[in-house]
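User: Show me sequence and structure for the first protein, then do the same for the second.

Assistant: Starting with the first protein.
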Amino acid sequence: MALGRTHATPAWTAIRLGKDTAEAQSAHGPAEDGPFGLVGMVVDKGLRKRNAVGRNRKVMRPSFGTAAGLVARVVFGRALAFAFVVAWPAPAAPGVEVRPATNAAYDRYVALTDQRNNQELQSGRHLLWIDSLGESDRTKDYAELKQGQVKMSKLDTRDNGVEIAVPDGMIHHWVGLAFIPGGHVDDVLAVLEDYNHHATYYAPDVEQSKIESRDGDHFRVFLRFRRHKVVTVVLDTEHDVRYFRDSPTLAHSRSSTVRISQVENPGKKDEHERPPGNDDGFLWRMDTWWRVVERDGGVYVQSEVVSLTREIPTGLAWLVRPFVTSIPEESLAFTMEATRKAVEGRMGRAKSRRSSGAEAASP
């Protein structure tokens, strides 16, 4: 998976109201119709422009700034929310089975992504995704990372330049990067490998977490994900995670889901899991690559996530697809922020203990 996030954690494609929604509500006042009205504001927030091979970078644009624009977005939000419910049924609906061709396409996509990751690690070039940008953009992004921003990019792995078709499925591919001033590789690994407390670090996205087995740097991890937005979805997931310490200032990890089951009636007496691969298709598979790079007076933490979900019915794809494909980005952004917060919290507690120890030792 990749460093620590078995992080499978919140990088799947379930639906949640994120920071953008709160910002939209703050900027325009409360929506009359609750989250449905706000959906349009979130969808409208950004455009994307092609920036580098295989990457799209988000470019923010001003809001409409007029009553007419706000009304238009609220109306669009209602329509989008309704279409989403129609296109992606509630958990009680009949399951959708993953086809062998869908899995095969995903396997090919992941194999090529693995190949590129291994080449970067072996060469030591482009260890962070922003290193592949032009000088001007790269300098700007490094400066913004130092200011506390999380840098996100949508990736696209191709097979000899050809897009990989995924029958009846959708592949979501994002990378996130954060900087922790004063941090070290060991500080990050201590949080990422602490799976028994991921339900604390990554709440509310991770509801339960535990290490099922460990052999050195090889982990088998259980995580229960909960997501809510329009519908609530709970998934029980198991991940195979391996960590690698490349040098005193570099580490990486690789994780893959080995089992994903959608949970029916969670927390109730009749709680049960649906058969893996035969459910509503919110998350069928997920692979993660983490990198931790110590330099510039701190540590950079990068997580790259590829996930597989069901396709959207053709008739509604034009309306629903842009919304659904934005969800993995929001989830990964949350994960990066939560990771930084957990690492900084651990560093702060360690500093306090050292200070207390020094005071106690003073004559």
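Switching to the second protein now.
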Amino acid sequence: MGVSTVIGVRPAGALRVDPKVVLAFAAIYFLWGATFLAIRVAVQEIPPFFASGVRFLIAGGTLYVFMRVRGESAPTAVQWRAIAVIALCMFVATYGALFWAEQFVPSGVTSVIEATLPITTIVLEVFIFRQQPFEWRMGAAVVLGFLGVVWLVLPGGQAFSWLPCLVILGGGTVWSLGAVLTRSMPRPRSLPLTAGAQMMLGGATLLALSQLTGELQTAPHISLRAALALLYLIVGGSLLGFTAYIWLLARMPATRVASHAYVNPLVALALGYFAAGETLTLRMVLASGVVVASVFLLLARPRAYLPSRKTRSRSSSSS
């Protein structure tokens, strides 16, 4: 991965900042951070599997077609099978759970639980698949992160249930499983094409799940507010945010780009509190700080674990 110098020193001693880099970081920090509130707004009126399916089918289809028009080759049959497995893990299981749970859990709390994705991934790599050696600093980060989540969801006056929180954590664990498995699976050369195909298949499966669960037996009333939230998820969260993410990965150290993992929850908590009136107690702030600190400890350590470029898209769409 090429690394370009973003901040340099001019002869006169003034700092030179590349505005494109600033905008790209703003996109993955704020556009992705705001997706949690957008999901919360959307699922108050739109059935969760339907909302997530529409988001990823449109965003993934758009990205896939765009890359094919630009000359990228279509995946082979073997690659399509691998894409389907990862789509089930990283979009159907993870985002199906996330959209469903946000009917009951505030967006800020959801973002903090989702911030544990790097932690669950490293647990699978070290203790299940034995792909990395154990390090005490890594172990401390894992323990600290999960203690923060437990503290966050323990009964104590919050207006949400712990069960949807466990669903979010379980869905995130399946995402981590996909992140680990994808490193040994065949995939196309183009990351955007691969991510588009994964989103597209995941979205189609979520729409099928929506039909099977009877979500659309009664047509939902979708207000302009909910429709705009879904549009934001498609354009801002999946297309613009992901494009900025890919652009940064080609120019910056991966550990610096991964800083969105501990900035996104801060953005989501602030937006939930100031824009949506979500409750924010001192305990929630402190517990969130513990989780964010654990992710920082994990990503900032020497030779820090980072998922492969293809999987690091809470595509991620990231959230």
